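Researcher: Structure for this, please.
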Amino acid sequence: MADAPSQRGARPERPLSPHIQIYKPLINMVMSILHRITGAALYIGTLLLVWWLIAAATSPQYFDYVSSWFQTLIGQLIMIGYTWALLHHMLGGLRHFLWDTGRGFDLATIDKLSWATIVLSLAGTVAIWLAVAAKGMF
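Model: Predicted structure, token format:
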């Protein structure tokens, strides 16, 4: 009797939670993840914006120094990425605001809003940076 395994404390066989490989990524899942990532990226981008504003308030020499960092290829890519993150996060917030009113919960509307978020954020970023380039600001 001492050799027989005890049922007490034994776990019953249960199915494991579905792994990410089982799920097909839907656009609303991707947008949810991107909304969180862009929210985190905005912290870093805002710190860079604050650095630039402090430089503007400090002295012309320090402002020129900080601006020279943003005029490099990496600096411009960071600013373009910050612009996209800002627009994408804002549009995602508007989508969530719509949902807070109790509207837009049918699957077709969710998909349309998700696609609109990505398309409008990319188009807005391109439009902003084309306007910046046309003004000769960079």
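Researcher: Any notable elements?
Model: DSSP finds four helices and no strands in the chain. The first helix runs from residue 27 to 58.
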